[in-house]
Design brief:
305 residues; 71% helix; transmembrane helix; rod-shaped; alpha+beta
Length: 305
């Protein structure tokens, strides 16, 4: 097969159906940009999980005098020194516990003032209203229930709280957004495939005389189909290249510059450039193969060349 002939036929086909070719390029670009974005979102959620789950603590809040008057869990009064020693000793015996840190009322008051000093409530609080607590670092964050079972309802314990539960709600929200993006991506891919099939059919119909002559002179089916398949592949590859550009630009402006989320949200461990670059070959391969296969099956089913 002469490469010059195939290339010329590709150029002719793309120019004849310029509007539909443009629609194919745009739909492929948007759908694959969403595809790459959903993959990167999954990486970001996994990175955040690894970062934050490694830092989560279980907190055992102890009863103070105020709780003794208002909280049923503290009906027996504020925590005593003996109860605190017993709680600490029991924590030291537990194999799931990696580290225990004690926070006094004064320290809790100081931390509250640092975080919420501007709130109206902060001015009326005093250190004796704050709760003492034990901050527990677990070897496995999934073992929270072991601590909760052992200390919930114990004398002197107001509550046992797991920070992982708060993070789980955040990650559920992020995963929900990711699945929504994937649903939109799937819809865009369907639209792109329909446009590719219609573009190939219109292109083949407009050149039916040429293909008929080629059949009469004994050209093989693949020789006739090749220009149409490669037209779709070239249009898809252009769309895939645009999708890669969208992802690179989004990473650059959203995280490093422009919005500069990496500087503004220092508590979030954002994915690096390596995560983006590793997705680009997959996007380009998909943009090339998906239109080519769609064109191939469209020609076999509808045109019977």
């Amino acid at each position: 097969m002469r490469a010059q002939f195939v290339l010329s036929e590709i150029g002719v086909g793309l120019r004849r159906n310029l509007t539909m070719t443009f629609a194919v390029i745009v739909s492929v670009a948007l759908s694959l940009a969403l595809f790459g974005g959903s993959l990167l979102m999954s990486d970001q959620v996994n990175t955040m999980k690894g970062y934050w789950y490694d830092k989560v603590n279980v907190s055992i809040f102890l009863c103070n005098k105020s709780d003794a008057e208002s909280d049923p869990n503290c009906a027996k009064g504020a925590v005593t020194d003996d109860q605190k020693k017993q709680i600490k000793a029991d924590l030291a015996k537990m194999s799931v516990v990696q580290k225990v840190t004690y926070e006094s009322q004064d320290e809790a008051y100081k931390h509250y003032k640092e975080q919420f000093g501007d709130s109206p409530l902060a001015a009326s609080l005093t250190p004796d209203q704050m709760q003492e607590s034990y901050r527990i670092k677990l070897k496995d964050p999934e073992k929270y229930q072991v601590i909760a079972t052992a200390f919930n309802g114990r004398d002197g314990v107001q509550s046992v709280q797991d920070q992982k539960g708060i993070l789980d709600n955040l990650f559920k929200l992020l995963n929900g957004m990711n699945w929504a993006a994937r649903a939109v991506m799937a819809l865009m891919l369907v639209v792109a495939l329909m446009l590719i099939v219609n573009t190939v059919r219109v292109s083949a119909f407009s050149r039916r005389r040429e293909t008929g002559i080629m059949r009469l002179v004994g050209a093989s089916g693949f020789y006739i189909q090749a220009p149409f398949i490669m037209e779709a592949a070239v249009a898809g590859l252009i769309g895939g290249t645009l999708a890669c550009g969208f992802l690179l630009i989004a990473r650059y402006f959203l995280i490093d510059h422009g919005l500069a989320l990496a500087d503004q949200l220092t508590l979030i461990n954002f994915i690096g450039w390596d995560a983006v670059l590793t997705k680009l070959p997959l996007i380009l391969a998909t943009s090339l193969l998906m239109p080519a296969l769609a064109a191939f099956f469209a020609l076999r089913k509808y045109l019977k060349v």
